[in-house]
Structures are given as C-alpha cells and as structure tokens.
Amino acid sequence: MSSVVPTRTTDPSKVHPSPPLTPPSTLKNIKMTKEEEPADMNIPDNYVAWTLKNQKPLPPVSWNNWWKELNYLSLSILTITPSIALWGAFHVKLRWETAIWSVFYYFVTGLGITAGYHRLWAHRSYNASKTLKYMLATAGAGAVEGSIKWWSRGHRAHHRYTDTELDPYNAHMGFWWSHIGWMIVKPRRKPGVADVSDLSRDEVVRWQHRWYLHLIIGMGFLLPMAVAGLGWGDWAGGFFFAGAARLCFVHHSTFCVNSLAHWLGETPFDDKHTPRDHVITALVTVGEGYHNFHHQFPMDYRNAIKWYQYDPTKWFIWTMSQFGLASHLKVFPDNEVRKGQLAMQLKRLRETQEGLSFAPEGNELPVISWESFREQSAKRSLVVIGGFIHDVSAFMDEHPGGRHLVAKMVGKDATTAFFGGVYDHSNAAHNWLSMMRVGALHGGTQHGLDDKSVPPSQRLRIARYNEIGSGNASSTAWSDSEGLLG
Q1: Which residues form the Cytochrome b5 heme-binding domain (predicted)?
Q2: Tens of pLDDT along 69-94?
C-alpha cells in the first residue's frame, strides 16, 4: 500500500492544480474517492530529506530479533514453491510435452509481468485494448508477484527514489537484499510515496485486485496442471513442472531485474545510479536486461534499442500493435537518447585523457630570446620547431633517420625540415616531439604555422563546461631564465 508523509493541510482554494483535461463544469460533478486522489499531491518539496529526517526506521535486524522481522507470507511463497518443485523433480518423470509447455507458460506469465505489470501499468509506455489488458492481467497473476496495483506502486517508488533509503529494493543494500531480501525481511523504512491513482481508475486493475487470490490459484497452478493433464495425461507433471518449477523460474527471473540488472554490465547512458545494461540479464529476464537505458527513458516501450539486442517483450508489444491490440507505443526521441550516449562516451574519453601526459601549454613555458636559445644550445641539444624550443638530447640516438639529421639542426630552426621539408612526420612523431618542449621562442610561431603548434593529440580535447573559455593561450610573459637548462 502507498504510504503518505503527513504534511500541513492546504486550503483547497489556494492549491494550483494542473490544467484539467475535462471542462470545469464537468469537474464539479466528479468526486474522487480517496484511492483516486494522487498520493503525492501535497508532499513537501524536500520530501526525501524530510522523510529521512522525520520517519524513524525500524531497528536493525539482529540475532535477537530476526524472527520478528520476517515477512512470513512472502517467505512461505518463496520457500514452499521451490520445495514443491524440487520434490517433483526427484519423484515425477518429466515428459517432453510437459517440458515444452512449462517453457511456453514461463514466457506467457513472464510477459504478463514485463509487458503488462511493468511497461503497460507501471510506466504507461503504450496503450492496450481491453482484451489485451485482461490477457496481461490474467497472465501476470500466474506469476504470483502481487496484484498490478501493489507491484506498480513499489516499482514506481523504485524509479523515483532509485538507490536511496526510500527505494524498496535499494541496490546499495547489497545484491541479495535487492534480489529477495526486501520481500523476506520487513523494510527498515516505508517505501517512498508513489502515486497509483491512475490505476485505481482502471477497471481491469480493479478487477484483478478483487479476484487476485482466485487468479493466482487458477493461473499459477490449476491451468498449467489442467493443460498437461487434459492434453497428454500428465497431471502430476503439469503441477510440479509447469506449475511450481515454472513459477520459481519466473520469480527469480523478475527478481534479477532488481538485483542483477543493478550489478552486472555497462552504463552507456548514465552512471549516476546503479542500473546497468547486459545481455546476460536480458536473457534471464525476458528482455529487461538493458536496465541503464530503461532507467534513463522509463516511458519508452523498448528496453533494447538495437535490432540485435534481446528484448522479446518489445517485439511482443510491437506485434500486438500490428493486430490493433496495442497503440501509442512511446519512443523517446532518438536525439535525446544519443545525447545520453554521447555524454557517457565523452566521460570515458575524459577519464582516458586524464590518465595521459600531454605537452605543456604555451603559457606554462619560459619565453626565450633567439640569442639566449643559441647560447644555451652550446650546452644542450636544443632545436626550434614551430616556435617552440625542444630538448632532443635523449632522443638523438633514437631518431629513425639517424643521429646526424638531428645533430645538424641543434641551435637552429628545423621547422621546415620537420614539417615535410625532409620528412612529413606522423602524428605520433608530432605528439612525441611536443613532450620535449622546454621553452617558447620569443616572437611566437612563424606566420602560417599557428595550427601546427598544437600537437595532434591535443587538437580535440574533452573539456568540462567550466574549462571552456579559460585562458589557455600562449603567455606573452618574457623570461630569459637560465632555469631552462635545469
């Protein structure tokens, strides 16, 4: 159920609601029930901080109180079901017809969660006909993961408060907590408020909520058992394999969206929070494994955006739209998706860039006159190229063209020879040469060589917004300091 943090009452005459979708005259005649009122209408702006400050968490679980802190209903479902399946695996022969039916029904009930509970009701990523809604609500009940309303309320809280203490399956609490612990142990805090008033107005959601107990028994066990029993006489196999074992797999498949999808993989769209993309997670969750994308663009009906990525839920929804059972499939603008990808690509490049050493900026070097350069060249192998003075002492014996080509340029300007006069040097040569800079020649770069003063590795740099426009131009300061020679 939703939990609402008490706030001071507000005079209705002073509230500024969003523009109504129906005429004001009609709204006067509408009286919303308590369930239909948005749960987050009157929460404070600093709701998260306010809640953490004012809502006392339950005491930590310890050896002295752990049995009091268990949710025995969830614990029973999550332990008895696999125990039944395990007993059946040792005592009931698995027929090939039952095996195929079990896998098929796994996908049916799995899609009830992924295409129904998740993408249709929790995120409203598409519209479904009443027929498809009833199909998904019924199939989702067969997964025995709570009603649509209960499931969606928790999932919306997860998205709104991801990785915080108000996230019901907070990944920072550990892999096993987000996978199954949050259901077995009473939460230390109530999940953050999330509005499900739209679901309270949905007749299919209300129908499923009202008949939920009957549906989970019928869809969870009776139907899979009846199909196998009436179809090929395998009543026991239908119960143990298509019923209990299949249910166990569906449970942990869905749970992996809360655990594995926040632990394994890459963050190609944003690394602010824990959700990640990985094909393994996609394979075990009926396509919900591209979770980094999903958390960035939750209203998108897709989880995978590339044709080769595994997302059967996406293809199911698309197929339903072709038959007229689904419509208004929401797709986040490609331009905005690519912005997210670009931001992360630039961030990774920035990290690589910061791990490398680059040539000093011109304003970081002492400015040396020609006369001083000539005088110091007699003590050390210095060469001028592109307006910068380079100490090539350690490189002369390594030069691919031979020591003599460098030695004859000591104390001289070798710009023409370096930039193609003798040899058109590679980008690597330009980058390496720039690391030998020890000074800037007074008077600046020769006319027409301004662009060549910047080595190739520094012509495209990743800069933070506060670095753009900062003074990185060559200094005009004058210095003939002998410190050039160390």
Answers
A1: 383-442
A2: 999 999 999 999 999 999 999 999 99
Cβ neighbors of 349 (< 8 A, separation 6 or more) are 462
- pTM to 2 decimal places: 0.81
Q: How far apart are CA 448 and CA 2, in angstroms?
A: 70
Beta bridge partners of 384: 389, 413
Distance CA(6)–CA(439), nearest Å, equals 67
Contact at 8 Å (CB) between 301 and 126?
A: yes
* Cα–Cα distance for residue pair 56/72, rounded to 1 Å: 23
Amino acid at residue number 237: G
In sequence order, the β-bridge partners of residue 185 are: 70
In the structure encoding, which two tokens stand for residue 409, read together? 């340029």
Distance CA 172, CA 232 (A): 48
Residue 360: name the closest of 282, 439, 298 by CA: 439
Going through 78-178 in order, the beta strands assigned E by DSSP cover 127-128
In the structure encoding, which two tokens stand for residue 285, read together?
């969750």
Phi and psi, residue 383, nearest 5°: -135, 140
**Homologous superfamily of 364-460+471-485:** Cytochrome b5-like heme/steroid binding domain (3.10.120.10)
Q: Rounded to the nearest 5°, which phi and psi values hold at 231?
A: -75, -45
The tokens of 109 are what?
């009930």
Helix then strand then coil, % of the chain, to nearest 5: 50, 5, 45
Is there a contact between 148 and 209 (Cβ–Cβ < 8 Å)? yes
pLDDT by residue (tens digit) across 354-403? 999 998 888 889 999 999 999 999 999 999 998 899 999 999 888 988 89
Domain ranges of the chain: 66-343, 364-460+471-485
